[in-house]
Each structure stands twice: as C-alpha cells, then as structure tokens.
Amino acid sequence: xxxxxxxxxxxINIEQELKxxxxxxxxxxxxxxxxxxxxxxxxxxxxxxxxxxxxAQRLKWDKDTxxxxxxxxxxxALKGLKQASDDPTRLPNEVLSPINKLLTEGSIEEGESxxxxxxNRQRKxxxxxxxxxxxxxxxxxxxxxxxxxNDQNEIVSYEMSHIQKVQPQGQVRSLISSxxxxxxxxxxxxxxxxxxxxxxxxxxxxxxxxxxxxxxxPVWAIVIRLDAHSLKTVYVDGINGTIIQNPSDLLPKGxxxxxxxx
Length: 262
Known about the structure:
It is built from 4 helices and 13 strands. By secondary structure, it is mainly beta. Mean pLDDT is 87; it is low at 1-9 and 251-262.
C-alpha cells in the first residue's frame, strides 16, 4: 500500500517529507477540500472621538491608508503574557480577557468583529483579524487590529482598519485542502528545515480594489516558526494553490514587509 500511495498523483507523503527535513508539524493536515465564495466590502471610516469611551484614548484617522491610530490614556495590563506558551497562535484566557473587554465594552469601534490571530513576542504586537464571511477572518491590512505593547506587557496603543457591508460575490469556488497548501509551500522551498509549521487557517485576502470597494479571495494563511525568535506567515491561493508573493499582509507597511514577524 505504501508503494501505491507513493505512485498516486500526490506522489509525495508530505508528513514524511517534513519529518525527513526535521520540520515539525504541530497540527494535523486535512485532505478536505471546502468551498467558499469571493467576498467584497467597503472600507469604513472610523470615528476619532475617543475621550468618552470606557478606556479614554487619543485617536487619529489616516485617510491615505484607511487606518485608525489609537493611544490609551492609561496602559492596559496583560497578566500572564510572560508565561504564554511558545505557540504564537495561542494565548491564555487571562491574557485575552482584558482585550476582549476592550472589544466588547465599546472602547474600540466595531471591536466585536475582531478575533485573535497571532502574538509576536519580538515585536511586542498582538494581531487580530476582522471576521469577513462564514466565520473566516480577513488577514490583510484592510481589516485588522494590531495592539502595541510596552516593555511591561501593557497595551499602550493600537492601529486598525475595518470593512463594512461584507457580501459574498458570485458562486462558491472549490478550494484546495490545507494538506495541498502545505505541500505546495514545501515543494517551492518555502518551509526551511528545522522550522515548525504551527497553523494553517483558511482566510481572506484582498485581490482587487475598485474605488472604495475591496474584493477578497480565499487564501490559506500558514504560520511558520523559523526559530525561537521569529515567525513568518506565508499565503497560498485557496483556489489555484499558487504561493502569493508580496501579500498585503497583516504587517504594517515598511516594517519587515517580507512578512517575517521578527
């Protein structure tokens, strides 16, 4: 049966290949091929009135980038962040609960539409993505929320962008599986040996912009831990399986734009 498997179209056993290259896979890959549509929405201008929110803040809107910048009057402590696990895609509830409070109490506009994505210890940033459609997150700079921490692990500021009136576009498309996405990355040498593949999430990324309407396509967002200090996120087109070069990533422009979150 092993022989048959190696002769099938897949012709590589990705789990074995990774192991042979000392690449650690921290979750189970799936061969399931889902279906999702393209989606579209409009960039939303966010309010700059911050004084009377539960957490007082100074706000500034940048119309060129469609980003809101906020600075809290009082830093917000995140207990337990020092002890957070090595997995950047997981944070303990005691860390997330003060953030959830910010999102639900009205301190951050549209806060309830964002979900935790990844914690970048090196850069002292916690990334959230906006839910786009079908519980899938948008993972690019048009619909994100990034918290900036000081050396005491307190949130001092944030930047965010938001998409409104999100609707599916046209019919659903057949997608490649997470297994196929990781296989493609491996075959194109995007997964260095001795690294760890820590998550593969189906999400949405900008593919087209017509004035203030943005169209998004389904992509696999795959987080790779390169070493103890650095991560990178690589994106694979969910429909045709190509590797997306220069994605309009979650990262702020001009800061490690090769999508390493060092």
